[in-house]
Amino acid sequence: PQFTKPEKHYYTFQVKCNRCGEIIEGRIDLDNDLSVDYEPNREVFRVHKGLMGSGRCFQQIEVDLKFSSTKAVIEETIQGGTFVE
Questions:
Q1: Three-state SS for 14?
Q2: Between vectors from CA 36 to CA 11 and to CA 63, what angle results, nearest 5°?
Q3: Which end of the chain is more exposed for a tag (fewer CB within 10 A), N or C?
Q4: Is 33:71 a contact under the CB 8 Å cutoff?
Q5: Is the pLDDT of residue 56 over 70?
Q6: 57 vs 66, which has greater pLDDT?
């Protein structure tokens, strides 16, 4: 029998470093990276991701994302950079 790997689900995003302006891509594995958080009347998922560019500067960019139970982004905060739309 042939086994197929389950399809992976990722949320990808881009941030721009406040110090050097480099655009950095981040990726969240929606099946493994999220932590469940039980809020009153609903279940949400959270993830904290630290990103760093290719080495021109060593600015750490901290990203916090909150997802709904259907894995849609409902809140995003960032330190050290800005989100690129």
A1: strand
A2: 45
A3: N
A4: no
A5: yes
A6: 66
CB 83 within 8 A of CB 15: yes
User: Which amino acid is located at 27 in the chain?
Assistant: R
Contact call for residues 36 and 43 (beta carbons, < 8 A): yes
CA 10/CA 39 separation, integer angstroms = 24
- DSSP for 58-73 reads ---EEEEEEE-TTS-E
- Kindly report the pTM of this predicted structure: 0.85
Question: Which residues, including other chains, have CB under 8 Å from residue 82's CB and lie 6 or more apart?
Answer: 15, 16, 18
Residue (of 32, 35, 45) closest to 6 by Cα position: 32
Comparing 7 with 77, which gets the higher pLDDT? 77
Q: How many residues does the chain have?
A: 85
Burial class (CB in 10 A: 0-12, 13-18, 19+), 51: buried
Task: Kindly state the tokens that stand for 15.
Answer: 């941030």
Q: In 1-85, which residue ranges form alpha helices assigned H by DSSP?
A: none
